[in-house]
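Tutorial sheet, problem 5. The two components below are modelled jointly, 1059 residues in total.
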Amino acid sequence: MKAAPFEYVRPGTVGQALSVLASWRGDARLMAGGQTLGPMLNMRVATPKCIIDVSRIDALRKIEDRQGSIIVGAAVTHSRFEDAAASSPTWRLLSYVGSSIAYRAIRNRGTIGGSLAHADPAADWPAAMMLLGARLTIAGARRTRAVDMKDFMLGPFRTAIEPDEVLTSIEFQTISADARWGYYKACRKEGEYPEAIGAVLFDRRRSIHRIVVGALDVAPQLLEPLAMIVGQQNKVPESQMILNAIAKIAADLSDVDLQLHAAAVRRAIVQAVN
Amino acid sequence: MAANGIGARLPRKEDARHLKGEGTFVGDIDFPNLLEAAFLRSPLAHAKIAKVTLPIELEGRAFTSAQIATSTKPIRTPSALPGYKSSDYPLLATKKVRFVGEPIAVCVAQTRAEAEDMCRQIVIEFEELPAIVDAVDGRKPGSPLVHEEFGDNLFVTTSANIRFDDAVKGADVVVNREFRLARNCMSPLEGKGALAYLDERAEHLVVYSSTQVPHIIRSAISESLGLEERRIRVIAPDVGGGFGYKSVLQVEELCIAWLGLTLQKPVRWTEDRYEHLVAAANAREHHYQVSAYANKSGKLLALDVELTVDCGAYSAWPVSACLEAIHAARNLPSNYTMDGFRCSTYSVTTNKPPIVPYRSVAKPSLGVAVEVTLDAVARELGLEPAEIRLINLIPADQMPYNTITGVHYDSGNYPRSMQTAIEQIKLDQIRDRQKTKEPDGRLIGVGFSNYTETTAMGTKVFIGLGWPLKPGFEQATVRLTTDGDLEIKVGVLSPGVGLETTLAQVACEILGIDPARTKVVHGDTALTPYSTGTYNSRGMVMAGGAVSMACKELAARIRHIGAHLLQERRDSVTLKNGAVIGARGGVVPIQQVAKAWYIDPENLPADVNPSGLEVTTGYKPSTDTGAIGYGTHAAVVAVDPEIGTVEILDYVIVEDCGTIVNPLIVEGQAYGATTQGIGQALYEEMRYDELGQPLASTLSDYLLPGASEVPNIRVIHFETPSPYTEMGIKGVGEAGSIGAPGAILNAINDALRPLCAEICETPATPRVVLNAILNAGRSQAGKLA
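Model answer (structure tokens):
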């Protein structure tokens, strides 16, 4: 399958990208790494009249390691996370997540912003950013705004980005040196989209107790009461307790799906508390 | 033995070009003004075509059945089987579409993208019909009909009862199981492809096709297009994997041949992965009801099997929709003795792509049914699964052996193979290991599976299969070049299986000419002797035999000329290491013999054979019953009971393919075929929704095993020559795919035994495994309550 004809534009700045986007009035699609959009174009599932390639905009490729926080540009590739020096607990976590996405060839092109904007519930970055409590910066023609990760992904393949906006960067607080985290994916095989994600972060110094369950039919979800209990007790809870916590936020999961997600969460907890 | 002759572990000659990316596949060929074709395919599984609107501006560049049907014949596959109904598979759909992906129109343009754009301008109005998606449902009376003229949805039914009622009288246990084997897709690296153009000088239509069977494709094109065979030349360039998909005729290659002829311009179609997955190369989908009867000591008394094959919408040529069921019914007794056998088969037409023969045809699926049932019988009787196999395997002293269904096994020691697998997989150690819990909570299991591979079957067997064309003698041409090198020409085709190397090794064995100095020509109807082609693991047996026979004759002629040059008697010289050696120690290299024939004929003996240094001869084994490879697969797996994943920890293959021509290639075939068997067992599944829409259209939905899923496979060889074939060679290409699924499922079931869970379907995905565990848990809880 070959893509239907489209115009191709490669702007050098976010401002240019926004003005091209506006000029096509909804008939243009932004492309970063193209690892999902590429096949969609070829299968003619997506037939935009214009592709705006944002992968070469320098501002979107920056990583700023600040005091207490990290800001990454939306067009930073998965492999840059994978290859980052494990210089802090935060970078160890980011590198771990980045290195487990699909295959190296995909990681060389696929980007964090593309993954978040596409909002596949089974993708890694939505779950990982939920875990880190990230804040996303979205630029529009008139204003630039910030959105919390928990308000960003509205559902499968739906986000808070308006049709005339561009996701530009993602910011999150760094985690403490003695923070404990776990990240577990249940995959059919190496490199495939997971069937369940469990992600756990206990950062006592910053009073953070988070458990995220991902690869649901909806956006990744926080299991807040469970996280509070496990964070305080610092031990692996009974499996039934995890099953109940997930069943509460995703009532229509099949028995098998419930089991898969509970196992993923349990294994992430085991990584974090042991 | 010559240094690089039979048995040499020689790297494949063809690898040099492939590793450099310098092979020539259909997609690599270029012509000035080459047009690329795209097919408009049905979006619906079953519908009447009410109206086709072809925009006027596409005239001469877009074609539907209205343009093509009057000058072509649909694919029709006759079969001699009683009651068989043949389908008409039109080149482009006429009144109805019968599966998603069926071609309706074809467009040509400078680029594939433009041709696809044109396809989107064609408007088709459909009247949707209810689809048959499940073969078992399709058997029910009153079902919607895929082919109205059939009156039901059955291509053919068969039944056999061989001493069944007497055999079951002494049974102590009956074990019943139902098996569902998923539809698989063959997924060679290179999909199908075809390119056609009219060669005015040679007065023929040249069709490049990625095919295993160029000569019979020529006959098929001739039949469909009404063009005499002398006016068609089919060339198979490099073929990037066949696996059986490329042993059948595709409507697309007929369309390309028609376009090349009609437009008088070169036209190409290259199948893409979407087309491959959705519209072609479907295989393996069987449904079984099995009852095994045994006595207390574990002796198998009889098998009772009902098999339903999901044949898809049309009967593929030349294999027909009956092949799977007929092959299964013949081979279900597998490697085991039994007193009775009953089997009924239903070959059902459904609204899916035609089922085509995939590496080993029906055997991987029937292997699951037989081997998993055997383990169930062992569990029922409290026997070790390895033990029940040793009890029932055909004893070595009964070879050659006719199975209860009449399959003739030529040679071998089946129990020794099983015993070796037990030792190599270290069964005792695994049973010990299972007594303690694994630190990571996973469950360990071991599974076995025996197989036979019925290769290079001959005329009589194919008559029994009802085939429209049957293989007979296989021919080869061998010729010394003027500089004393060797050319071999064969009608079989090497779709990446190394025949360019192994046939040269056979010649080396006899002539002493190093394979580096031998050129194997194959895959061109204008250059090679006729052959029904490469399938049924027959290439090495048949073409290898023919090359051997031809080389023996050539050797005699070389010795004759050489003796004359040495001034010795013909019977006092020998041919060794590429030279004629006289009794008095004189040496005449083959180059000098070639020079005498071609350049200095004044030096030839007066009674020289005027046919010279070129020999074409035919060969077939001394019986038609085939050369039967066999062996045992053993797998150790770890099942994660919380997330349902299966990891293969250890894998052993014990195999016997008769005389081994090249161990490196035999092992490569074993690794590749076993990998496909792992795919069937754990990953591969072409699913459809209730409307007949395929649910896997990319390789992210259709999972194939990759490097990280394939274990380090250990291969142990035995070599029992076939008594019926030249040099004792047996075929080997398909074996691995037969043994793997049964061994892996048995290993999983062995691991799940403490949980009372069992898997009787493929693929055993994490969801299938978890479902079995959860269901077993519920039924255990029910029992306790």
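Marking note: The CA atoms of residues 558 and 568 of chain B lie 13 Å apart. Full credit if you identified this.
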